[in-house]
Design brief:
It is built from 26 helices and two strands. The protein is mostly helical. It has a two-stranded parallel sheet with strand order 1-2. The N and C termini lie far apart (69 Å).
C-alpha cells in the first residue's frame, strides 16, 4: 500500500509539473463544465438540437475568451458580454437569409472586433464574443422566429459560465500563484533528477546523450515555469514588495540550478564549449576528452550531494528516510566558503560551490513563498543565508516588475491592431468570395480559419507555420470525425459526450500543440454535424477545402496589406533583445562600480521575455521543414549565441548581488576599459541590426576580461572572492558571445589587444 501511495504521489507530482498551476486543466474543465450545464438546462426545457448547439458554442466562447486575472474584472467582462452577444445573435439571425448583406456585415464586424483590441483586454474579449456569436448564427443557420429560444440559450450559457467560474471551479489569483510556485519547485526537482542521471552515468554511459537531452528539456520547462510565475505576480500577491521578493527568488533558483548543470557538464566533458543548456547549440560539441582522475574519483561524492540537495527540496521520489534537511543545508552552504571542498580540479570545486549557491537560493525561495520558519540547528552559514535573504526581501519595493526595465520602443507608423484588423478584414473578404464558390452552405469555415491563423502571430512566416499546423490537424480531425460518427450511429447524447471530450482536448492542448488543438476542433465539429444530421464525407472534405482556402486568403492579405516580413519581425525582436542585454550589463557594471540601483534581476527577466518572443517569431526560420537551410543555420546560431549571452548576463546579475559593495571591483581601470569596450561593441551591434549591416561598423576585441579579482583573499570572505571570480567569468563569456553574434551577422571584429 505504501509503495502504491508513493507511486501515485510521484505520478501526481509529474502531472502538476507538466501543467503549472493546473491552468490548462482548469481551463478545459471550466469550458466543459459550462457546456455541460448549458446543455442540461436547455435539455430540461426541451430545446431543439439547433438551440442546444447554439447554447453549447456560446458557453464555450463565454468561458474561454475571458482571460483577466482578477475575478472582479472577469465578472465585469462577462456582464458586458451579455448585451453584445444578444445584439449580435439578433443581427446575425436577421441577416442569415440575406447572404450578401450578411457577408458584408461579417467582414465589417471582424474589422471592428480586431480594431478595438487597442482598448485593452476587455475590449479584446468583447470583440471575440461578437465575432464568435455571429459565426454561430451562420453555422447553425438561425432565424428571427427562433430569437426567444436563442436569447434564452445565450443567457443560460453566460449564467453557466459564471457559475462554473465563480462557484464550482473558483480559484483566486493567489491560489493560482501558489500552485505555480509548487509546479516551479517540482520542475526544479526534475532538473536535479536529470542532472543526477547525467552525473551517475558519467561521460561514457550509453544513455549519456539521451540524459543530457532530458536535462536540456527539463531546464527549458523550468524556464517556462519561472516566466509563468512572473506573469501571475501582479495579480496574485498583496503588494509589490512580496511580488518583488518572489520574482527575485525564483530567478535566483533558476539561474543557480542552470549554472550548476552547465558546470557539471563541463566537468564530465573537459575541453568542450558548453556555455548554456540552450537546445539551439550544436550537439556535437558534447564530445570531449577524458575526465580528470581526481574528478572521476570525486563523482560519487558529487552524486551523493546532488541526491541530498534533491531530497532537501522536499518533492519527488528520492526521499531517503532519516535525512535531516537542516544538516544537508549546513553542509552544502559550507562549500560557498570553500569549507570541506573535495581534493579535485578547480572546475569540480566550482561545481560544489555552485551546489552551495543553489542551496542558498532554495532557502531564499522558501522564505519568499512561506515566510520565516524556525531556524533549527543552523550553522553560521545557514543563519547568514537566511539573514541575507530576509534583508533583501524586506528592502524597498522595486519601482515595478520586469516591464519597468524595458527600454522605450519607437512608436510604429501603423498600430499593430490597425494592421491586423485591415489584414484580417481583407483576408476575410477574399475568404467569403472563395468560400461561396466552394460551398455556399459552408463558406464561413474559410472566414473562421482566416481569423484564427492571425491570432498571436506577428509576421507572414508565423502565419504560414500556423496555417500548416492547422491544416494538418484538420485533416487528421476529419478522419477521426468520420470514424467516430460511424461508430456512434444515431445516439445524440453519445455525440454530445464525444463533442464535450473534444472540447476538453481542444483547450487542454491549446498551449501545447496547435496541431492537436486543430484536431480536436475538427473532431468536435464532426460530432456537431452528426447532431444536426448533416454529416457526410463530402461535408468534411469541404471543411478541409475551406480551411486551406482560409489559410491562403490569410497569407495573401498578410503579403499585400501592410506586410510584415519574417526577417523584419525577427530583426525588430533581435534589436529589442540586444537592447535589454545592454541594459542588464550596464546596470550590473554600475552596481560593481559602487552605484546603488534597483533589483538587477528585473532587467534580466525582461531580457528573458524578449528572448522568448524572438524564439517564437523565429519558428518559421528554424522549423525542420523549411527549405531555406542556410537561413535556418544562421537563425539557430544567432539564437544559440544570444541565449548564451542571456544566460551569462542573468548569472552576472544574480552574482553581482552576492559581491559586497565594499569590494567595488567595477572601479578597476582595466575592467572599466573592458566594460566600455563591450558596451561600445554591443551598441554597434544594435545599430547594425537596425540598419541591417549597411554602414560596415567594426567591433573591437580587446585584451580580455581580468580573470582574478583585484582584492586579496584576506580582505573578504571566501564566498565573496568566489563570487567576484564568477562575475569576471560571466562578463568574459558575454563578451565572447557578442563577438560571435557579430561574426554570424557578417560584421568584422578587429583585434585591438
Amino acid at each position: 500500500m505504501q509503495r502504491a501511495r508513493t507511486r501515485w504521489t510521484h505520478v501526481y507530482d509529474r502531472f502538476l509539473a507538466s501543467d503549472p498551476g493546473l491552468i490548462r486543466l482548469r481551463s478545459a474543465l471550466s469550458t466543459v463544465g459550462a457546456v455541460g450545464l448549458t446543455l442540461g438546462a436547455l435539455a430540461a426545457l426541451d430545446a431543439p438540437v439547433p438551440i442546444l448547439v447554439t447554447g453549447a458554442l456560446t458557453a464555450m466562447v463565454s468561458t474561454a475568451a475571458v482571460t483577466e486575472p482578477r475575478p472582479r474584472d472577469q465578472a465585469l467582462t462577462l456582464a458586458s458580454g451579455v448585451p453584445v452577444a444578444l445584439a449580435v445573435v439578433a443581427v446575425g439571425s436577421a441577416l442569415a437569409p440575406h447572404r450578401v448583406v450578411a457577408d458584408v456585415v461579417f467582414v465589417l464586424l471582424i474589422f471592428a472586433a480586431l480594431y478595438i483590441r487597442r482598448l485593452g483586454p476587455r475590449a479584446t474579449t468583447l470583440g471575440v464574443f461578437a465575432f464568435q456569436l455571429f459565426f454561430v448564427t451562420q453555422f447553425v443557420n438561425t432565424r428571427v422566429e427562433q430569437l426567444p429560444q436563442l436569447f434564452l440559450a445565450v443567457l443560460v450559457a453566460f449564467a453557466s459560465s459564471a457559475l462554473v467560474r465563480f462557484a464550482v471551479l473558483r480559484s483566486s489569483p493567489g491560489r493560482t500563484l501558489a500552485r505555480l510556485q509548487r509546479a516551479f519547485g517540482l520542475r526544479l526537482g526534475l532538473v536535479l533528477d536529470a542532472l543526477i542521471d547525467v552525473s551517475e552515468g558519467g561521460p561514457q554511459a550509453s544513455h549519456g546523450e539521451r540524459a543530457v537531452s532530458t536535462l536540456r528539456r527539463s531546464t527549458a520547462r523550468l524556464h517556462t515555469g519561472a516566466l509563468m510565475v512572473q506573469n501571475q505576480l501582479a495579480a496574485g500577491t498583496p503588494d509589490e514588495r512580496t511580488a518583488s521578493a518572489i520574482q527575485r527568488r525564483v530567478a535566483e533558483a533558476e539561474t543557480a540550478v542552470e549554472r550548476l548543470a552547465v558546470l557539471v557538464l563541463r566537468v564530465l566533458r573537459p575541453g568542450t564549449d558548453i556555455d548554456t543548456l540552450s537546445g539551439h547549440r550544436t550537439q556535437a560539441r558534447l564530445a570531449g576528452s577524458a575526465v580528470n582522475t581526481l574528478d572521476a574519483a570525486t563523482l560519487p561524492v558529487l552524486v551523493s550531494e546532488l541526491r541530498a540537495l534533491r531530497t532537501a527540496i522536499g518533492t519527488g521520489p528520492q526521499r531517503p528516510t532519516g535525512t535531516d534537511p537542516a544538516a544537508v543545508h549546513n553542509r552544502l552552504l559550507g562549500y560557498r566558503g570553500d569549507k570541506q571542498l573535495p581534493d579535485a580540479s578547480p572546475a569540480m570545486q566550482d561545481v560544489f560551490r555552485s551546489a552551495g549557491d543553489l542551496t542558498r537560493a532554495l532557502i531564499g525561495l522558501r522564505l519568499a513563498a512561506d515566510g520565516p520558519t524556525p531556524a533549527v540547528r543552523d550553522t553560521p552559514e545557514t543563519a547568514r543565508s537566511r539573514e541575507e535573504s530576509t534583508a533583501k526581501d524586506a528592502g524597498p519595493a522595486n519601482a515595478g516588475l520586469a516591464e519597468k526595465a524595458v527600454p522605450q520602443q519607437p512608436v510604429p507608423r501603423v498600430r499593430p491592431t490597425t494592421r491586423t484588423a485591415l489584414q484580417v478584414a481583407t483576408g476575410s473578404a477574399l475568404a467569403v468570395v472563395g468560400g461561396e464558390l466552394i460551398s455556399p452552405q459552408r463558406w464561413y469555415w474559410a472566414v473562421f480559419t482566416c481569423w484564427v491563423v492571425f491570432i498571436s502571430t506577428g509576421s507572414t512566416g508565423e502565419i504560414l507555420v500556423r496555417g500548416y499546423r492547422r491544416l494538418t490537424g484538420t485533416v487528421a480531425g476529419v478522419a477521426a470525425g468520420l470514424a467516430l460518427a460511424a461508430l456512434i450511429g444515431d445516439a445524440p447524447w453519445l455525440a454530445f459526450t464525444l463533442a464535450g471530450l473534444s472540447v476538453f482536448g481542444m483547450y487542454y492542448t491549446l498551449a501545447v500543440s496547435y496541431t492537436l488543438m486543430s484536431f480536436f476542433v475538427t473532431t468536435m465539429i464532426g460530432m456537431l454535424y452528426t447532431l444536426l444530421h448533416t454529416l457526410n464525407p463530402g461535408v468534411l472534405v469541404v471543411r478541409i477545402e475551406e480551411t486551406a482556402l482560409g489559410i491562403a486568403c490569410g497569407l495573401i492579405a498578410a503579403l499585400l496589406v501592410l506586410p510584415v516580413r519574417t526577417r523584419e519581425r525577427t530583426d525588430q525582436l533581435l534589436h529589442d533583445a540586444l537592447e535589454r542585454l545592454r541594459a542588464v550589463l550596464s546596470q550590473s557594471l554600475a552596481r560593481l562600480g559602487g552605484e546603488s540601483g534597483g533589483d538587477l534581476l528585473d532587467p534580466a527577466r525582461a531580457l528573458d521575455a524578449a528572448l522568448e518572443s524572438l524564439r517564437l517569431s523565429a519558428q518559421p526560420l528554424i522549423t525542420p521543414i523549411t527549405p531555406l537551410r542556410s537561413r535556418r543555420r544562421t537563425a539557430l546560431c544567432v539564437l544559440g549565441l544570444l541565449e548564451t549571452a542571456a544566460f551569462h548576463a542573468r548569472s552576472l546579475a544574480a552574482t553581482v548581488e552576492l559581491v559586497p559593495a565594499g569590494l567595488r571591483i567595477g572601479a578597476e581601470p582595466s575592467l572599466v576599459n573592458e566594460a566600455h569596450r563591450i558596451d561600445r561593441n554591443l551598441a554597434a551591434l544594435i545599430s547594425q541590426v537596425a540598419l541591417r549591416g549597411k554602414d560596415g561598423t567594426t567591433l573591437v576585441r580587446g585584451p580580455g576580461i581580468p580573470t582574478q579579482p583585484a582584492v586579496s583573499e584576506g580582505e573578504a570572505r571566501a564566498e565573496h572572492i568566489n563570487a567576484t571570480r564568477r562575475v569576471l567569468r560571466h562578463l568574459q563569456r558575454v563578451d565572447e558571445s557578442i563577438q560571435g553574434l557579430a561574426r554570424t551577422l557578417h560584421l568584422h571584429v578587429r583585434d585591438d589587444s
